[in-house]
Protein backbone atom coordinates (compact mmCIF):
# COMPACT_ATOMS: atom_id res chain seq x y z
CA UNK A 1 0.00 0.00 0.00
CA UNK A 2 1.33 3.40 -0.92
CA UNK A 3 2.29 5.83 1.84
CA UNK A 4 1.31 9.44 2.18
CA UNK A 5 4.79 10.61 1.23
CA UNK A 6 4.67 8.85 -2.12
CA UNK A 7 2.04 11.28 -3.34
CA UNK A 8 4.80 13.85 -3.87
CA UNK A 9 6.35 11.71 -6.62
CA UNK A 10 3.73 12.79 -9.13
CA UNK A 11 5.29 13.43 -12.58
CA UNK A 12 5.22 17.07 -13.58
CA UNK A 13 2.45 18.18 -15.92
CA UNK A 14 1.35 21.58 -17.17
CA UNK A 15 -1.14 22.88 -14.65
CA UNK A 16 -4.17 24.96 -15.46
CA UNK A 17 -4.26 28.57 -14.34
CA UNK A 18 -3.73 28.49 -10.58
CA UNK A 19 -6.18 30.36 -8.43
CA UNK A 20 -4.90 32.14 -5.30
CA UNK A 21 -5.87 30.69 -1.93
CA UNK A 22 -7.58 27.52 -0.90
CA UNK A 23 -11.16 27.28 0.24
CA UNK A 24 -12.16 25.34 3.33
CA UNK A 25 -14.00 22.29 1.91
CA UNK A 26 -16.19 20.52 4.41
CA UNK A 27 -19.35 18.63 3.46
CA UNK A 28 -22.34 18.65 5.83
CA UNK A 29 -22.78 15.22 7.47
CA UNK A 30 -26.49 15.52 8.19
CA UNK A 31 -27.61 13.09 5.46
CA UNK A 32 -25.49 10.11 6.49
CA UNK A 33 -27.40 9.30 9.67
CA UNK A 34 -30.85 10.35 8.53
CA UNK A 35 -30.87 8.27 5.37
CA UNK A 36 -29.11 5.15 6.69
CA UNK A 37 -32.29 3.11 6.54
CA UNK A 38 -33.01 3.98 2.92
CA UNK A 39 -29.64 3.35 1.31
CA UNK A 40 -30.33 -0.20 0.17
CA UNK A 41 -33.57 0.66 -1.64
CA UNK A 42 -33.25 0.32 -5.41
CA UNK A 43 -34.02 3.25 -7.63
CA UNK A 44 -37.28 2.06 -9.13
CA UNK A 45 -38.23 5.07 -11.24
CA UNK A 46 -38.04 8.84 -11.23
CA UNK A 47 -41.81 9.12 -10.64
CA UNK A 48 -41.56 7.04 -7.48
CA UNK A 49 -38.64 9.16 -6.30
CA UNK A 50 -40.75 12.27 -6.74
CA UNK A 51 -43.97 10.91 -5.23
CA UNK A 52 -42.81 8.59 -2.44
CA UNK A 53 -41.01 10.49 0.29
CA UNK A 54 -39.76 7.28 1.91
CA UNK A 55 -37.53 6.61 -1.07
CA UNK A 56 -35.84 9.99 -1.17
CA UNK A 57 -36.45 12.10 1.91
CA UNK A 58 -34.30 15.20 1.37
CA UNK A 59 -33.30 17.15 4.50
CA UNK A 60 -34.15 20.82 4.74
CA UNK A 61 -30.55 21.77 4.07
CA UNK A 62 -29.40 18.96 1.81
CA UNK A 63 -25.63 18.86 1.19
CA UNK A 64 -24.89 20.00 -2.35
CA UNK A 65 -22.76 17.85 -4.67
CA UNK A 66 -21.71 18.64 -8.21
CA UNK A 67 -21.27 16.35 -11.21
CA UNK A 68 -19.36 17.26 -14.35
CA UNK A 69 -20.53 15.03 -17.19
CA UNK A 70 -23.81 13.79 -18.62
CA UNK A 71 -23.06 10.18 -19.62
CA UNK A 72 -24.62 6.96 -18.36
CA UNK A 73 -22.51 6.82 -15.22
CA UNK A 74 -23.19 10.48 -14.43
CA UNK A 75 -26.96 9.88 -14.70
CA UNK A 76 -26.83 6.82 -12.44
CA UNK A 77 -24.61 8.68 -9.98
CA UNK A 78 -27.01 11.64 -9.87
CA UNK A 79 -29.98 9.34 -9.25
CA UNK A 80 -28.14 7.58 -6.42
CA UNK A 81 -27.09 10.85 -4.80
CA UNK A 82 -30.61 12.25 -5.00
CA UNK A 83 -32.08 9.14 -3.38
CA UNK A 84 -29.42 9.43 -0.65
CA UNK A 85 -30.55 12.91 0.34
CA UNK A 86 -28.08 15.11 -1.53
CA UNK A 87 -28.79 18.19 -3.58
CA UNK A 88 -27.25 17.50 -6.98
CA UNK A 89 -26.07 20.03 -9.55
CA UNK A 90 -25.04 18.61 -12.93
CA UNK A 91 -22.76 20.53 -15.26
CA UNK A 92 -23.24 19.85 -18.95
CA UNK A 93 -22.15 21.50 -22.21
CA UNK A 94 -25.73 21.28 -23.45
CA UNK A 95 -28.04 21.33 -20.40
CA UNK A 96 -31.25 21.72 -22.41
CA UNK A 97 -30.64 18.48 -24.28
CA UNK A 98 -29.56 16.40 -21.27
CA UNK A 99 -31.89 17.77 -18.57
CA UNK A 100 -34.60 15.20 -19.31
CA UNK A 101 -32.20 12.30 -18.71
CA UNK A 102 -31.58 13.17 -15.06
CA UNK A 103 -33.92 12.94 -12.04
CA UNK A 104 -36.20 15.94 -11.70
CA UNK A 105 -34.67 16.68 -8.28
CA UNK A 106 -31.27 17.24 -9.90
CA UNK A 107 -30.44 20.65 -11.30
CA UNK A 108 -28.88 20.52 -14.77
CA UNK A 109 -26.99 23.63 -15.82
CA UNK A 110 -23.78 24.76 -17.52
CA UNK A 111 -20.46 23.56 -16.13
CA UNK A 112 -19.40 27.00 -14.89
CA UNK A 113 -22.60 27.36 -12.86
CA UNK A 114 -22.47 23.78 -11.55
CA UNK A 115 -19.09 24.20 -9.82
CA UNK A 116 -19.87 27.44 -7.99
CA UNK A 117 -21.48 26.24 -4.75
CA UNK A 118 -20.67 22.50 -4.24
CA UNK A 119 -17.52 21.61 -2.30
CA UNK A 120 -17.45 18.05 -3.67
CA UNK A 121 -17.54 17.64 -7.44
CA UNK A 122 -17.60 14.30 -9.27
CA UNK A 123 -15.65 14.40 -12.54
CA UNK A 124 -17.49 11.85 -14.72
CA UNK A 125 -15.52 12.50 -17.89
CA UNK A 126 -12.88 10.76 -19.96
CA UNK A 127 -9.24 11.63 -19.48
CA UNK A 128 -8.93 13.45 -22.82
CA UNK A 129 -11.66 15.89 -21.75
CA UNK A 130 -9.97 16.96 -18.50
CA UNK A 131 -8.16 19.83 -20.21
CA UNK A 132 -11.49 21.32 -21.25
CA UNK A 133 -12.10 22.16 -17.58
CA UNK A 134 -9.01 24.37 -17.31
CA UNK A 135 -11.17 27.43 -17.88
CA UNK A 136 -12.90 26.62 -14.57
CA UNK A 137 -9.70 26.48 -12.53
CA UNK A 138 -10.56 29.66 -10.59
CA UNK A 139 -13.97 28.31 -9.56
CA UNK A 140 -12.56 24.85 -8.75
CA UNK A 141 -9.74 26.12 -6.49
CA UNK A 142 -9.90 24.52 -3.06
CA UNK A 143 -12.68 22.07 -3.97
CA UNK A 144 -12.63 18.27 -3.85
CA UNK A 145 -12.59 16.58 -7.25
CA UNK A 146 -13.69 12.93 -7.25
CA UNK A 147 -12.31 11.13 -10.30
CA UNK A 148 -14.55 8.21 -11.31
CA UNK A 149 -12.97 7.48 -14.71
CA UNK A 150 -11.41 4.23 -15.92
CA UNK A 151 -8.75 3.90 -18.61
CA UNK A 152 -8.79 1.24 -21.29
CA UNK A 153 -6.09 -1.41 -21.28
CA UNK A 154 -4.19 0.43 -24.02
CA UNK A 155 -4.44 3.74 -22.15
CA UNK A 156 -3.33 2.11 -18.90
CA UNK A 157 -0.20 0.77 -20.60
CA UNK A 158 0.47 3.95 -22.57
CA UNK A 159 0.23 6.46 -19.70
CA UNK A 160 2.71 6.24 -16.84
CA UNK A 161 0.49 8.26 -14.52
CA UNK A 162 -3.07 7.48 -13.51
CA UNK A 163 -6.07 9.52 -14.57
CA UNK A 164 -6.42 10.86 -11.03
CA UNK A 165 -2.78 11.97 -10.91
CA UNK A 166 -3.16 13.64 -14.29
CA UNK A 167 -6.26 15.46 -13.03
CA UNK A 168 -4.37 16.57 -9.92
CA UNK A 169 -1.52 17.90 -12.06
CA UNK A 170 -3.99 20.02 -14.07
CA UNK A 171 -5.62 21.40 -10.92
CA UNK A 172 -2.92 21.68 -8.22
CA UNK A 173 -5.13 23.89 -6.06
CA UNK A 174 -7.78 21.14 -5.79
CA UNK A 175 -7.91 18.05 -3.62
CA UNK A 176 -8.34 14.96 -5.79
CA UNK A 177 -9.89 11.66 -4.68
CA UNK A 178 -10.05 8.49 -6.76
CA UNK A 179 -13.27 6.59 -6.05
CA UNK A 180 -16.28 4.78 -7.56
CA UNK A 181 -14.33 3.53 -10.60
CA UNK A 182 -15.03 -0.11 -9.63
CA UNK A 183 -18.78 0.53 -9.21
CA UNK A 184 -20.91 0.06 -12.31
CA UNK A 185 -23.81 2.25 -13.37
CA UNK A 186 -26.14 -0.71 -12.82
CA UNK A 187 -24.99 -1.07 -9.21
CA UNK A 188 -25.65 2.62 -8.62
CA UNK A 189 -29.16 2.27 -10.04
CA UNK A 190 -30.18 -0.97 -8.36
CA UNK A 191 -28.53 -0.20 -5.03
CA UNK A 192 -25.48 -1.67 -3.27
CA UNK A 193 -27.50 -4.67 -2.09
CA UNK A 194 -27.28 -6.18 -5.58
CA UNK A 195 -23.61 -5.38 -6.14
CA UNK A 196 -20.29 -4.93 -4.44
CA UNK A 197 -20.46 -2.52 -1.50
CA UNK A 198 -16.74 -1.78 -1.33
CA UNK A 199 -15.43 1.45 -2.87
CA UNK A 200 -11.60 1.57 -3.00
CA UNK A 201 -10.41 5.14 -2.48
CA UNK A 202 -7.09 6.99 -2.62
CA UNK A 203 -6.62 10.69 -2.07
CA UNK A 204 -4.29 13.66 -2.08
CA UNK A 205 -5.21 14.73 1.48
CA UNK A 206 -6.75 13.24 4.61
CA UNK A 207 -9.38 15.98 4.71
CA UNK A 208 -10.71 15.05 1.28
CA UNK A 209 -10.67 11.36 2.26
CA UNK A 210 -12.90 11.98 5.28
CA UNK A 211 -15.33 14.14 3.33
CA UNK A 212 -15.76 11.74 0.41
CA UNK A 213 -15.99 8.77 2.80
CA UNK A 214 -19.07 10.38 4.35
CA UNK A 215 -20.64 10.63 0.90
CA UNK A 216 -19.79 7.00 0.15
CA UNK A 217 -21.38 5.79 3.39
CA UNK A 218 -24.45 7.96 2.85
CA UNK A 219 -24.93 6.27 -0.53
CA UNK A 220 -24.92 2.85 1.17
CA UNK A 221 -21.39 1.77 0.20
CA UNK A 222 -18.30 0.96 2.21
CA UNK A 223 -15.13 3.06 1.65
CA UNK A 224 -11.83 1.19 1.54
CA UNK A 225 -8.71 3.28 2.12
CA UNK A 226 -6.03 2.49 -0.49
CA UNK A 227 -3.59 5.17 0.63
CA UNK A 228 -2.34 8.26 -1.16
CA UNK A 229 -3.02 9.26 -4.75
CA UNK A 230 0.06 7.32 -5.86
CA UNK A 231 -2.10 4.19 -5.48
CA UNK A 232 -4.59 5.47 -8.06
CA UNK A 233 -2.91 3.52 -10.85
CA UNK A 234 -3.46 0.30 -8.91
CA UNK A 235 -7.10 1.23 -8.21
CA UNK A 236 -7.68 2.00 -11.88
CA UNK A 237 -6.23 -1.40 -12.83
CA UNK A 238 -8.85 -3.27 -10.77
CA UNK A 239 -11.67 -3.13 -13.37
CA UNK A 240 -9.22 -4.18 -16.10
CA UNK A 241 -8.57 -7.55 -14.51
CA UNK A 242 -10.69 -10.36 -15.91
CA UNK A 243 -11.51 -12.75 -13.07
CA UNK A 244 -8.03 -12.69 -11.49
CA UNK A 245 -8.99 -15.21 -8.80
CA UNK A 246 -10.27 -17.71 -11.39
CA UNK A 247 -7.20 -18.06 -13.59
CA UNK A 248 -5.46 -20.86 -11.68
CA UNK A 249 -8.65 -22.84 -10.84
CA UNK A 250 -9.88 -22.56 -14.44
CA UNK A 251 -6.53 -23.75 -15.82
CA UNK A 252 -6.53 -26.61 -13.33
CA UNK A 253 -10.06 -27.64 -14.32
CA UNK A 254 -9.13 -27.41 -18.00
CA UNK A 255 -6.02 -29.52 -17.41
CA UNK A 256 -8.00 -32.19 -15.54
CA UNK A 257 -10.66 -32.24 -18.26
CA UNK A 258 -8.02 -32.66 -20.98
CA UNK A 259 -6.28 -35.47 -19.11
CA UNK A 260 -9.43 -37.46 -18.37
CA UNK A 261 -10.86 -36.85 -21.85
CA UNK A 262 -7.73 -38.22 -23.52
CA UNK A 263 -7.64 -41.10 -21.02
CA UNK A 264 -11.28 -42.04 -21.73
CA UNK A 265 -10.72 -41.64 -25.48
CA UNK A 266 -7.88 -44.16 -25.37
CA UNK A 267 -9.91 -46.65 -23.36
CA UNK A 268 -13.38 -46.31 -24.91
CA UNK A 269 -12.66 -45.31 -28.52
CA UNK A 270 -9.09 -46.03 -29.53
CA UNK A 271 -8.76 -49.47 -27.91
CA UNK A 272 -11.83 -51.02 -29.66
CA UNK A 273 -10.69 -49.55 -32.97
CA UNK A 274 -7.12 -50.89 -32.70
CA UNK A 275 -8.01 -54.28 -31.26
CA UNK A 276 -11.32 -55.19 -32.92
CA UNK A 277 -11.60 -52.67 -35.76
CA UNK A 278 -14.82 -51.21 -34.31
CA UNK A 279 -15.39 -47.52 -34.99
CA UNK A 280 -16.75 -45.83 -31.88
CA UNK A 281 -15.72 -42.29 -32.67
CA UNK A 282 -19.37 -41.27 -32.37
CA UNK A 283 -18.82 -41.34 -28.59
CA UNK A 284 -16.57 -38.28 -28.66
CA UNK A 285 -19.23 -35.51 -28.55
CA UNK A 286 -21.45 -36.85 -25.76
CA UNK A 287 -20.44 -40.16 -24.21
CA UNK A 288 -16.74 -39.40 -23.62
CA UNK A 289 -17.57 -35.89 -22.40
CA UNK A 290 -20.18 -37.28 -20.00
CA UNK A 291 -17.65 -39.78 -18.67
CA UNK A 292 -15.05 -37.03 -18.20
CA UNK A 293 -17.17 -34.41 -16.44
CA UNK A 294 -17.87 -36.38 -13.23
CA UNK A 295 -14.16 -37.22 -12.96
CA UNK A 296 -13.26 -33.53 -13.06
CA UNK A 297 -16.05 -32.57 -10.64
CA UNK A 298 -15.05 -35.28 -8.17
CA UNK A 299 -11.34 -34.43 -8.18
CA UNK A 300 -12.01 -30.69 -7.91
CA UNK A 301 -14.29 -31.25 -4.93
CA UNK A 302 -11.58 -33.26 -3.19
CA UNK A 303 -9.07 -30.49 -3.93
CA UNK A 304 -11.34 -28.08 -2.04
CA UNK A 305 -10.79 -29.99 1.22
CA UNK A 306 -7.28 -31.31 0.70
CA UNK A 307 -5.52 -28.01 1.61
CA UNK A 308 -7.41 -27.92 4.93
CA UNK A 309 -6.07 -31.39 5.71
CA UNK A 310 -2.54 -30.32 4.80
CA UNK A 311 -2.85 -27.18 6.92
CA UNK A 312 -4.02 -29.21 9.93
CA UNK A 313 -1.16 -31.69 9.49
CA UNK A 314 1.31 -28.81 9.26
CA UNK A 315 -0.01 -27.25 12.47
CA UNK A 316 0.24 -30.59 14.26
CA UNK A 317 3.80 -31.05 13.08
CA UNK A 318 4.88 -27.53 14.04
CA UNK A 319 2.88 -27.47 17.27
CA UNK A 320 1.76 -23.86 16.71
CA UNK A 321 -0.60 -21.78 14.62
CA UNK A 322 1.60 -18.68 14.64
CA UNK A 323 3.78 -19.64 11.68
CA UNK A 324 2.78 -18.80 8.14
CA UNK A 325 1.80 -21.52 5.74
CA UNK A 326 3.93 -21.92 2.60
CA UNK A 327 2.91 -19.58 -0.21
CA UNK A 328 1.61 -22.40 -2.40
CA UNK A 329 -0.64 -23.66 0.41
CA UNK A 330 -1.81 -20.15 1.24
CA UNK A 331 -2.82 -19.52 -2.39
CA UNK A 332 -4.49 -22.92 -2.54
CA UNK A 333 -6.60 -22.09 0.51
CA UNK A 334 -7.66 -18.81 -1.08
CA UNK A 335 -8.89 -20.54 -4.26
CA UNK A 336 -11.14 -23.13 -2.59
CA UNK A 337 -14.33 -21.23 -3.41
CA UNK A 338 -13.51 -21.14 -7.13
CA UNK A 339 -12.60 -24.83 -7.13
CA UNK A 340 -15.90 -25.69 -5.46
CA UNK A 341 -17.95 -23.67 -7.94
CA UNK A 342 -16.15 -25.27 -10.89
CA UNK A 343 -16.82 -28.67 -9.35
CA UNK A 344 -20.52 -27.84 -9.14
CA UNK A 345 -20.50 -26.67 -12.77
CA UNK A 346 -19.00 -29.95 -13.98
CA UNK A 347 -21.41 -31.98 -11.85
CA UNK A 348 -24.42 -30.05 -13.18
CA UNK A 349 -23.24 -30.52 -16.77
CA UNK A 350 -22.79 -34.24 -16.08
CA UNK A 351 -26.41 -34.43 -14.90
CA UNK A 352 -27.64 -32.63 -18.03
CA UNK A 353 -25.60 -34.85 -20.33
CA UNK A 354 -26.95 -37.94 -18.55
CA UNK A 355 -30.52 -36.77 -19.16
CA UNK A 356 -29.70 -36.26 -22.84
CA UNK A 357 -28.23 -39.73 -23.38
CA UNK A 358 -31.61 -41.53 -23.87
CA UNK A 359 -32.51 -38.97 -26.56
CA UNK A 360 -29.64 -39.95 -28.83
CA UNK A 361 -29.84 -42.40 -31.72
CA UNK A 362 -27.07 -44.49 -30.16
CA UNK A 363 -29.18 -45.36 -27.14
CA UNK A 364 -32.19 -46.25 -29.31
CA UNK A 365 -30.15 -48.57 -31.52
CA UNK A 366 -28.59 -50.25 -28.49
CA UNK A 367 -32.04 -50.90 -26.97
CA UNK A 368 -33.31 -52.38 -30.23
CA UNK A 369 -30.19 -54.56 -30.63
CA UNK A 370 -30.50 -55.79 -27.06
CA UNK A 371 -34.14 -56.73 -27.67
CA UNK A 372 -33.19 -58.63 -30.87
CA UNK A 373 -30.45 -60.53 -29.03
CA UNK A 374 -32.91 -61.45 -26.29
CA UNK A 375 -35.40 -62.78 -28.84
CA UNK A 376 -32.74 -64.76 -30.69
CA UNK A 377 -31.54 -66.25 -27.42
CA UNK A 378 -35.13 -67.26 -26.51
CA UNK A 379 -34.98 -65.29 -23.28
CA UNK A 380 -38.40 -64.08 -22.28
CA UNK A 381 -37.26 -62.43 -19.09
CA UNK A 382 -34.02 -60.51 -18.56
CA UNK A 383 -33.48 -59.42 -14.98
CA UNK A 384 -30.22 -59.16 -13.01
CA UNK A 385 -31.04 -58.37 -9.42
CA UNK A 386 -27.56 -57.16 -8.53
CA UNK A 387 -27.40 -54.73 -11.44
CA UNK A 388 -30.84 -53.33 -10.61
CA UNK A 389 -29.86 -52.61 -7.02
CA UNK A 390 -26.52 -51.17 -8.06
CA UNK A 391 -28.04 -48.71 -10.52
CA UNK A 392 -30.80 -47.64 -8.12
CA UNK A 393 -28.28 -46.93 -5.34
CA UNK A 394 -25.91 -45.28 -7.84
CA UNK A 395 -28.56 -42.85 -9.10
CA UNK A 396 -29.85 -42.05 -5.61
CA UNK A 397 -26.37 -41.24 -4.29
CA UNK A 398 -25.68 -39.10 -7.36
CA UNK A 399 -28.82 -37.04 -6.84
CA UNK A 400 -28.01 -36.55 -3.14
CA UNK A 401 -24.43 -35.52 -3.92
CA UNK A 402 -25.54 -33.03 -6.57
CA UNK A 403 -28.19 -31.58 -4.23
CA UNK A 404 -25.67 -31.09 -1.44
CA UNK A 405 -23.19 -29.57 -3.86
CA UNK A 406 -25.91 -27.19 -5.08
CA UNK A 407 -26.45 -26.01 -1.51
CA UNK A 408 -22.71 -25.31 -1.19
CA UNK A 409 -22.74 -23.31 -4.42
CA UNK A 410 -25.76 -21.22 -3.37
CA UNK A 411 -24.26 -20.34 0.03
CA UNK A 412 -21.08 -19.22 -1.73
CA UNK A 413 -22.98 -16.27 -3.20
CA UNK A 414 -22.19 -13.08 -1.24
CA UNK A 415 -25.86 -12.18 -0.80
CA UNK A 416 -26.55 -15.56 0.84
CA UNK A 417 -23.28 -15.81 2.75
CA UNK A 418 -23.83 -12.38 4.32
CA UNK A 419 -27.16 -13.54 5.77
CA UNK A 420 -25.49 -16.42 7.65
CA UNK A 421 -23.50 -16.17 10.83
CA UNK A 422 -20.06 -17.75 11.02
CA UNK A 423 -21.27 -21.00 12.62
CA UNK A 424 -23.97 -21.50 9.98
CA UNK A 425 -21.60 -20.71 7.12
CA UNK A 426 -18.93 -23.04 8.55
CA UNK A 427 -21.47 -25.84 8.99
CA UNK A 428 -22.64 -25.59 5.39
CA UNK A 429 -19.23 -25.17 3.76
CA UNK A 430 -17.25 -27.53 6.00
CA UNK A 431 -19.60 -30.19 7.38
CA UNK A 432 -22.05 -30.44 4.48
CA UNK A 433 -19.16 -30.08 2.04
CA UNK A 434 -17.50 -33.12 3.55
CA UNK A 435 -20.85 -34.94 3.37
CA UNK A 436 -20.99 -34.09 -0.34
CA UNK A 437 -17.50 -35.54 -0.79
CA UNK A 438 -18.51 -38.78 1.02
CA UNK A 439 -21.70 -39.08 -1.06
CA UNK A 440 -19.68 -38.54 -4.24
CA UNK A 441 -17.26 -41.24 -3.16
CA UNK A 442 -20.08 -43.71 -2.54
CA UNK A 443 -21.60 -42.70 -5.88
CA UNK A 444 -18.29 -43.49 -7.60
CA UNK A 445 -17.84 -46.80 -5.77
CA UNK A 446 -21.32 -48.04 -6.71
CA UNK A 447 -20.60 -47.07 -10.31
CA UNK A 448 -17.39 -49.08 -10.35
CA UNK A 449 -18.67 -51.95 -8.21
CA UNK A 450 -16.49 -54.96 -9.11
CA UNK A 451 -15.03 -53.57 -12.34
CA UNK A 452 -11.71 -52.75 -10.71
CA UNK A 453 -11.15 -56.49 -10.16
CA UNK A 454 -12.08 -57.65 -13.67
CA UNK A 455 -9.35 -58.03 -16.30
CA UNK A 456 -11.70 -57.10 -19.14
CA UNK A 457 -11.93 -53.53 -17.86
CA UNK A 458 -8.17 -52.96 -18.06
CA UNK A 459 -7.92 -51.76 -21.66
CA UNK A 460 -4.38 -51.27 -22.94
CA UNK A 461 -3.46 -52.26 -19.38
CA UNK A 462 -5.00 -48.98 -18.19
CA UNK A 463 -7.16 -49.19 -15.05
CA UNK A 464 -10.77 -47.95 -15.14
CA UNK A 465 -11.09 -44.17 -14.91
CA UNK A 466 -12.99 -44.20 -11.64
CA UNK A 467 -10.08 -45.87 -9.86
CA UNK A 468 -7.89 -42.87 -10.66
CA UNK A 469 -10.45 -40.39 -9.37
CA UNK A 470 -10.71 -42.21 -6.03
CA UNK A 471 -7.09 -41.57 -5.03
CA UNK A 472 -7.27 -37.97 -3.77
CA UNK A 473 -10.79 -38.14 -2.22
CA UNK A 474 -9.93 -41.29 -0.27
CA UNK A 475 -6.81 -39.60 1.10
CA UNK A 476 -8.91 -36.63 2.25
CA UNK A 477 -11.59 -38.82 3.86
CA UNK A 478 -9.05 -41.00 5.66
CA UNK A 479 -7.14 -37.95 6.91
CA UNK A 480 -10.38 -36.34 8.15
CA UNK A 481 -11.29 -39.55 9.96
CA UNK A 482 -7.80 -39.69 11.47
CA UNK A 483 -8.09 -36.13 12.80
CA UNK A 484 -11.31 -37.11 14.58
CA UNK A 485 -9.37 -39.39 16.90
CA UNK A 486 -9.03 -37.84 20.39
CA UNK A 487 -5.23 -37.90 20.33
CA UNK A 488 -5.23 -35.64 17.24
CA UNK A 489 -8.46 -33.65 17.65
CA UNK A 490 -7.63 -32.46 21.19
CA UNK A 491 -4.11 -31.44 20.26
CA UNK A 492 -5.31 -29.64 17.15
CA UNK A 493 -8.02 -27.84 19.14
CA UNK A 494 -5.44 -26.65 21.70
CA UNK A 495 -3.13 -25.41 18.95
CA UNK A 496 -5.91 -23.41 17.34
CA UNK A 497 -6.70 -21.84 20.72
CA UNK A 498 -3.14 -20.53 21.04
CA UNK A 499 -1.20 -23.40 22.65
CA UNK A 500 2.36 -23.94 21.43
CA UNK A 501 4.46 -27.07 21.71
CA UNK A 502 8.00 -25.80 22.25
CA UNK A 503 7.56 -22.10 22.90
CA UNK A 504 5.69 -19.91 25.29
CA UNK A 505 3.54 -16.88 24.64
CA UNK A 506 5.02 -13.90 26.46
CA UNK A 507 3.13 -10.85 27.69
CA UNK A 508 4.39 -7.54 29.09
CA UNK A 509 2.36 -6.31 32.04
CA UNK A 510 2.89 -3.00 33.90
CA UNK A 511 3.83 -3.33 37.60
CA UNK A 512 4.70 -0.33 39.81
CA UNK A 513 5.94 1.98 37.06
CA UNK A 514 7.90 -0.89 35.51
CA UNK A 515 7.22 -3.61 32.97
CA UNK A 516 7.59 -7.15 34.24
CA UNK A 517 7.82 -10.00 31.81
CA UNK A 518 5.28 -12.73 32.30
CA UNK A 519 5.13 -16.07 30.57
CA UNK A 520 1.94 -17.89 29.69
CA UNK A 521 1.88 -21.63 29.04
CA UNK A 522 -1.68 -21.66 27.72
Automatic annotation (TrEMBL):
<keyword id="KW-0813">Transport</keyword>
<keyword id="KW-0812">Transmembrane</keyword>
<dbReference type="InterPro" id="IPR036291">
    <property type="entry name" value="NAD(P)-bd_dom_sf"/>
</dbReference>
<dbReference type="InterPro" id="IPR013130">
    <property type="entry name" value="Fe3_Rdtase_TM_dom"/>
</dbReference>
<keyword id="KW-0406">Ion transport</keyword>
<keyword id="KW-0274">FAD</keyword>
<keyword id="KW-0186">Copper</keyword>
<keyword id="KW-0967">Endosome</keyword>
<feature type="transmembrane region" description="Helical">
    <location>
        <begin position="248"/>
        <end position="266"/>
    </location>
</feature>
<dbReference type="InterPro" id="IPR028939">
    <property type="entry name" value="P5C_Rdtase_cat_N"/>
</dbReference>
<keyword id="KW-0285">Flavoprotein</keyword>
<feature type="domain" description="Ferric oxidoreductase">
    <location>
        <begin position="295"/>
        <end position="438"/>
    </location>
</feature>
<keyword id="KW-1133">Transmembrane helix</keyword>
<keyword id="KW-0408">Iron</keyword>
<keyword id="KW-0560">Oxidoreductase</keyword>
<dbReference type="GO" id="GO:0006826">
    <property type="term" value="P:iron ion transport"/>
</dbReference>
<feature type="transmembrane region" description="Helical">
    <location>
        <begin position="286"/>
        <end position="314"/>
    </location>
</feature>
<feature type="domain" description="Pyrroline-5-carboxylate reductase catalytic N-terminal">
    <location>
        <begin position="64"/>
        <end position="151"/>
    </location>
</feature>
<feature type="transmembrane region" description="Helical">
    <location>
        <begin position="425"/>
        <end position="446"/>
    </location>
</feature>
<keyword id="KW-0410">Iron transport</keyword>
<feature type="region of interest" description="Disordered">
    <location>
        <begin position="1"/>
        <end position="27"/>
    </location>
</feature>
<feature type="transmembrane region" description="Helical">
    <location>
        <begin position="393"/>
        <end position="413"/>
    </location>
</feature>
<keyword id="KW-0472">Membrane</keyword>
<protein>
    <submittedName>
        <fullName>Metalloreductase STEAP3</fullName>
    </submittedName>
</protein>
<dbReference type="GO" id="GO:0052851">
    <property type="term" value="F:ferric-chelate reductase (NADPH) activity"/>
</dbReference>
<dbReference type="GO" id="GO:0010008">
    <property type="term" value="C:endosome membrane"/>
</dbReference>
<dbReference type="GO" id="GO:0046872">
    <property type="term" value="F:metal ion binding"/>
</dbReference>
<dbReference type="Pfam" id="PF01794">
    <property type="entry name" value="Ferric_reduct"/>
</dbReference>
<feature type="compositionally biased region" description="Basic and acidic residues">
    <location>
        <begin position="1"/>
        <end position="11"/>
    </location>
</feature>
<feature type="transmembrane region" description="Helical">
    <location>
        <begin position="466"/>
        <end position="488"/>
    </location>
</feature>
<dbReference type="InterPro" id="IPR051267">
    <property type="entry name" value="STEAP_metalloreductase"/>
</dbReference>
<comment type="similarity">
    <text>Belongs to the STEAP family.</text>
</comment>
<dbReference type="GO" id="GO:0015677">
    <property type="term" value="P:copper ion import"/>
</dbReference>
<keyword id="KW-0479">Metal-binding</keyword>
<dbReference type="Pfam" id="PF03807">
    <property type="entry name" value="F420_oxidored"/>
</dbReference>
<dbReference type="GO" id="GO:0008823">
    <property type="term" value="F:cupric reductase (NADH) activity"/>
</dbReference>
<dbReference type="GO" id="GO:0005886">
    <property type="term" value="C:plasma membrane"/>
</dbReference>
<feature type="transmembrane region" description="Helical">
    <location>
        <begin position="339"/>
        <end position="360"/>
    </location>
</feature>
Amino acid sequence: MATEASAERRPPAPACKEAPGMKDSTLHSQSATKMSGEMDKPLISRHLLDSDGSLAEVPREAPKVGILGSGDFARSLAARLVSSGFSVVVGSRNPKRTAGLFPSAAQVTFQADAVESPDVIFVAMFREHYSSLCGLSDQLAGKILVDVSNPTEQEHLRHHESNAEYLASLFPTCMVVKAFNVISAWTLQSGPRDGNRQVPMCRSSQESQRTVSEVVRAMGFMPVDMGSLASAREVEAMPLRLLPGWKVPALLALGLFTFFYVYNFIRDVLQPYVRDGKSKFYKLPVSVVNTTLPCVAYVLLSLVYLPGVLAAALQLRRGTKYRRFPDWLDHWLQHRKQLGLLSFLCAALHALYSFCLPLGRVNRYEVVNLAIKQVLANKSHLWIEEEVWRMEIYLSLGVLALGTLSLLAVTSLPSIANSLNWREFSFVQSTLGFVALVLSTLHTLTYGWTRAFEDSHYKFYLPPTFTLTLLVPCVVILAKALFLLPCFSRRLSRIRRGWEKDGATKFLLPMDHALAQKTSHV
